[in-house]
Amino acid sequence: MSVWDDLTGQPEAIAIFSAAAEASAAGGSDDSSMTHSWLITGPPGSGRSNLAYAFAAALLSTGDPEADESVRRQVDARSHPDLGSLSTDRVIITVDEVRKLVATSNYSPSVGRFRVMVIEDADRMAERTSNVLLKALEEPPPRTVWILCAPSEADLLPTIRSRVRSVRLRVPSVENVADLIARRDGVDLPTATRAAREAQSHIGMAHRLATNEEARARRAETLEIALGVHSVSGAMLAATRLLSLAGADASALTAERDAEEREGALRSLGIEPGGTIPPALRAQLKNLEEDQKRREKRSLRDGIDRIMVDLLSLYRDILLLQLGVETEPINLSIYNKLVTASEQSTAQETLATMDAIATARRRIESNVTPALALEAMLVSARRTA
Q1: Residue 367 half-sphere exposure, CB side, CA atoms within 13 Å?
Q2: 263: Cβ contacts below 8 Å, ≥ 6 apart
Q3: 166 Cβ neighbours under 8 A, 6+ residues apart
Q4: SS3 state of residue 352
Q5: Closest Cα partner for 116 from 144, 87, 78, 149?
Q6: Residue 313 or residue 368, greater confidence
Q7: Residue 241 and residue 371: Cα distance in Å, rounded?
Q8: Listed GO molecular functions (predicted)?
Q9: Phi, psi of 194, deg, nearest 5
């Protein structure tokens, strides 16, 4: 099995990284193939981190197929001794986290040809944090490779952009994502295709919609709520319900992970399940719980944003019907309701609603109370029944 098999819709990027890995294995140093600092950019769901770890696995490979399968599993589990990784579920990556990663980047490889350091969501570094990383990129050890991931080059400092080779990913097609989900997750192709279309080719969200019935139900209810807003009071009630749906979605994403983390922490501390936690160890678990609370807050904000993206897809479909554009809607499963909604308003009103959604996203990102932002947005979305 190749490290590139679980990637889709990115043939040009895969060719670049595959050539670099092959050049490094052959001892090549041509600037056109291998370099020691990379930046993978692309829209959410395009597979930035998946490609980063596939490249890491290729760089850490030994050439022995059996051993390389073990390397791939270790990279997937983030447990390879020559792999350093940093990701965050919080709003920012802290300077201490980057300092720790930079320190480990100076170690010599223990079993592979390289020491590979991956930073997901590198755009979440503040300027001070980025400057800590900059020093490591300016003078990296000869056998260390840095791979950064971010939505766009503009999200990073110019000084960092000047020291990395940037590879831009594109949005994969619905067909490519559906084929991947069907093959990898064992989902029938019609379900995978619907999930890929409604996720707008976001690979992670397509996987979730294809494999989680509750996630599909929450998305369907989101659209029903928006289509049912016909008054200001209805907008207020709808905002409350949307916020509740976002909370339920966030809880579903974090609950299982939180339980696994706590169980792992107790096991590493030598505490049996259900056993008493010694006072001396309670501080460590308290730190874990605080991290989980911060992650839950970020997950709620992400859940609200997912709702906004789904609503934008809804009004995009309505607008195209109003303009007479013949194209397959994202929300094909509720086509008749889209037609009805398109007849209850004008294209100008639909555009105003889409503008209101974009405004609400900016307000929430600026720490405006989500309930107020959603209410203002849905007031604009109300239509005469």
Answers
A1: 1
A2: 273
A3: 38, 39, 40, 41, 153
A4: helix
A5: 144
A6: 313
A7: 10
A8: DNA-directed DNA polymerase activity
A9: -60, -45
Name the 3-class secondary structure at 255: helix
DSSP E strand stretches across 89-163: 115-119, 144-150
Q: How far is CA 101 from CA 42, 118, 207, 220, 323, in A?
A: 24, 9, 30, 42, 52
Q: Spell out the residues 6+ positions from residue 382 whose beta carbon is closer than 8 angstroms to its own.
A: 229, 230, 231, 232, 234, 235
| pLDDT tens digits, 193-250 | 999 999 999 998 999 999 999 999 999 999 999 999 989 999 999 999 999 998 888 7
Amino acid at 207: H
Q: Which residue in 217, 163, 216 sits closest to 194, CA to CA?
A: 216
Query: What is the pLDDT, as a whole number, of residue 5?
Result: 83
Q: What is the pLDDT of residues 43-53, one digit of tens each?
A: 888 889 999 99
Question: CA-to-CA distance for 92 and 128, rounded, in angstroms?
Answer: 12
Give the max Cα distance, the chain. 69
CA distance 89 to 254: 10
Cα-to-chain-centroid distance, residue 172: 15
- Pairing assessment for the beta strands 37-41 and 83-86 based on DSSP bridges: unpaired
Buried-state track 265-274, b at ≥16 Cβ within 10 A, e below 16:
bbeeeebeee
* Tokens linked to 338: 């889209």
Query: Which residues lie across from 93 on neighbouring strands?
Result: 125
Q: How confident is the model at residue 265 (pLDDT cuts 50, 70, 90)?
A: low
Report which secondary-structure segment, H or E, holds 273. Answer: none
DSSP letter, residue 125: B
| Angstrom distance (rounded) from CA 75 to CA 71 | 6
Residues 32/86, Cβ–Cβ less than 8 Å: no
Q: How far is residue 199's CA from residue 82's CA, in Å, rounded to a whole number? A: 35
d(CA 155, CA 164): 14
Amino acid of residue 70: S
Spatial distance between the Cα atoms of 15 and 320, rounded to a whole number of angstroms: 36
